[in-house]
Design goal:
Layout (H helix, E strand, L loop, with lengths): L2 E6 L1 H5 L18 H4 L2 H6 L1 H15 L6 H8 L5 E6 L5 H5 L4 E3 L2 E8 L6 E3 L16 E5 L9 H10 L2 E5 L21 E4 L13 E4 L3 H15 L1
Parallel strand pairs: 1-2, 1-7, 2-3, 7-8, 8-9
Antiparallel strand pairs: 4-5, 4-6
Helix pairs in contact: 5-8
Length: about 230
């Protein structure tokens, strides 16, 4: 069974009603990104940061996967599908996908501020005073700007093993995720699904652009892959 690696971004979740955080003026829900998504912001105002992510977490209880998510799960019947997502929601899991690597963390998890390996499932609000077993404050299990991306090495290995790579709903502007395409073999076909696709610079691979939303584009991707296989 051939390996299909799928890199997903905010575009696929936006179809389910999840806001993409960043507005046209560059603000995240009215906040400068450094206020709510950086260690500096956390140290400056923990209450603000926790409130920001509590609102995002609450929203996950109200949204559902869209057809793009379900179609990716369906592809597991025909391919060894590995999803690498920049999203922090759980919509791929809800849709039934089996192999999901979250590059930037997960909203339904929290971790200790002192022990990065102390991670808990967390479905409700997180507040100042919520601590690990040693009394250290818990924080969102989110990779903030300026922090390392622990999962990137595993993501690179998957891209190196890919027979096909699909990029869905991301302009690939945020590194290190944006650099993952470079780790595929140059003869590995890349499929780019986005209603307003960005220009993928320095891509030597065979490239197919599907200018559709994920809910429509993944179905088209399936048709193309089944013809190739």
């Amino acid at each position: 069974m051939k390996k299909l690696v799928v890199l997903t971004g905010a575009g696929i979740s936006a179809e389910s009603g999840i806001k993409t955080f960043r507005d046209s003026d560059g603000l995240w829900e009215g906040h400068d990104v450094m206020e709510v998504a950086s260690p500096i912001g956390w140290n400056k105002n923990k209450e603000l940061v926790l409130d920001f992510y509590n609102k995002r977490r609450r929203q996950l209880h109200e949204v559902a996967p869209n057809e793009g998510h379900f179609q990716l799960a369906e592809l597991e019947k025909y391919f060894n599908v590995q999803i690498i997502t920049q999203n922090v929601d759980n919509l791929h899991e809800k849709a039934g996908s089996s192999n999901i690597l979250h590059l930037h963390g997960e909203l339904f998890k929290v971790r200790s501020t002192k022990n990065i390996d102390y991670i808990l499932d967390w479905k409700h609000d997180l507040n100042v005073g919520d601590c690990d077993e040693n009394g250290h404050q818990l924080r969102p299990h989110i990779v903030w700007f300026g922090e390392d991306v622990p999962a990137i090495e595993e993501a690179i290995v998957h891209c190196e093993q890919a027979d096909y790579l699909a990029v869905i709903g991301t302009s690939l502007q945020v590194y290190p995720a944006a650099g993952l395409l470079r780790y595929t073999y140059t003869d590995t076909p890349i499929f780019y699904i986005d209603p307003k696709p960005a220009i993928l610079h320095s891509v030597a691979n065979p490239l197919t652009v599907i200018s559709k939303r994920a809910s429509e584009g993944v179905a088209h991707l399936k048709e193309l892959l089944m013809k190739k296989d």
